[in-house]
């Protein structure tokens, strides 16, 4: 045994290849040389496949996509419309042009639909699931009229305590809720008392918008891939809860101010409310829409404050609210008027289940952020 070991050790460092190391190294070099050629062939095949689909007659493509779009108007069948947009660039252009905006169709199809205003006629019905263990909230699109369906996942948010502030990070990915993720949509940031929340968007809401001067915004800006597309935290609104230091009876009182481009036509209900233009730092023009919670009525028999949620809310909670357009004080007699059209309603139906119904001028992203502000204890407001 010692002789054989000494025999092997005597060849250490020599050019003799006892275990085939030279053959393996040569094989690896050959495979490394062949691998780029395989990659080029695969890319060439993918390009030929895409060209084959893109060379179809525009009339034929429009007919195929139109049939799919009209026949499969509900999830989960609507995923086939998204598949049509993933074929190639020409198919994507025709599909997005044929689907239309959420305001016109009342349908949520692409991720961009989550930041488009909802329809003006009937609200889009959604629900929120809360996970208390990891402080995570999930937004789903309701597929039926019951509260038991699984729904279509839309957005996720996680509550994180940062010093004296609380932040809700909103993402398209339920598993990746970091601000550095490509699925990052925006965030909601509260003050120490939880009475004021600032809403930030990951994309500029209008031309010339400047991101907030914060550490997170600078970190996002340094990670952006395309210099043509701005990335950061752009302030688009705030939610304020009024103090109730005297502890008078009644629900929470809240006021929402949302900033939007002046070119975006607001809803008729919001137009009758407070809608005033403001100048931005870059010379652009943005408009502000002010919403407030609808005043409930006191029910003598039940001895509680009541609002008509039309069966969408079943559990009494201080978190329940309805938002309407605030009257414009600049209009004659407008201060005494209140718009009856509910633009957003949020309420409890289970231990960790809440409904959320929104319409124009709110988007799903804005409505979800406003509802997130209702979670948590607000000692100075109750």
UniProtKB/TrEMBL annotation:
Q: Where do the Tubby C-terminal domain residues begin and end?
A: 114-377
Q: Which Gene3D superfamilies match?
A: Tubby Protein, Chain A
Q: Name one Pfam family in it.
A: Tub
Q: What family does the database annotate?
A: Belongs to the TUB family.
Question: What name does this protein carry?
Answer: Tubby-like F-box protein
Give the organism, scientific name: Dendrobium catenatum
Lineage runs:
Eukaryota, Viridiplantae, Streptophyta, Embryophyta, Tracheophyta
Gene for this chain:
TULP1
């Amino acid at each position: 045994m010692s002789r054989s070991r000494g025999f092997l050790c005597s060849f250490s460092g020599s050019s003799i290849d006892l275990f085939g190391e030279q053959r393996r190294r040569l094989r690896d070099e050959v495979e490394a040389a062949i691998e780029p050629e395989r990659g080029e062939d695969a890319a060439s095949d993918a390009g030929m496949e895409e060209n084959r689909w893109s060379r179809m007659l525009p009339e034929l493509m429009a007919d195929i996509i139109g049939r799919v779009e009209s026949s499969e108007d509900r999830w989960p069948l609507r995923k086939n419309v998204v598949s049509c947009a993933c074929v190639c660039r020409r198919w994507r252009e025709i599909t997005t042009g044929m689907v239309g905006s959420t305001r016109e169709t009342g349908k949520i199809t692409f991720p961009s639909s989550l930041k488009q205003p909802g329809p003006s006629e009937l609200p889009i019905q959604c629900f929120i699931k809360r996970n208390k263990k990891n402080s995570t909230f999930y937004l789903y699109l309701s597929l039926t009229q019951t509260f038991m369906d699984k729904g279509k996942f839309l957005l996720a948010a996680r509550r994180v305590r940062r010093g004296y502030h609380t932040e809700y990070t909103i993402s398209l990915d339920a598993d990746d809720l970091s601000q550095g993720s490509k699925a990052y949509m925006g965030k909601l940031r509260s003050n120490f008392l939880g009475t004021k929340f600032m809403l930030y968007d990951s994309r500029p809401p209008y031309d010339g918008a400047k991101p907030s001067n914060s550490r997170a915004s600078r970190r996002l800006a340094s990670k952006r891939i395309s210099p043509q597309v701005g990335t950061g935290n752009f302030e688009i609104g705030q939610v304020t809860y009024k103090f109730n230091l005297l502890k008078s009876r009644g629900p929470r009182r809240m006021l929402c101010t949302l900033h939007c481009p002046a070119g975006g036509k607001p809803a008729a209900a919001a137009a009758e409310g407070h809608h005033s233009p403001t100048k931005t730092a870059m010379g652009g023009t943005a408009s502000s829409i002010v919403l407030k919670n609808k005043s409930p009525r006191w029910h003598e028999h039940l001895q509680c404050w009541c609002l008509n949620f039309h069966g969408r809310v079943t559990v009494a909670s201080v978190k329940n609210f309805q938002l309407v357009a605030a009257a414009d004080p600049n209009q004659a007699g407008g201060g005494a008027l209140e718009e009856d059209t509910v633009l957003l309603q949020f309420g409890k139906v289970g231990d960790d289940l809440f409904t959320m119904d929104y319409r124009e001028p709110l988007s799903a992203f804005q409505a979800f952020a406003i509802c997130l502000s209702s979670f948590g204890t607000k000692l100075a407001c109750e």
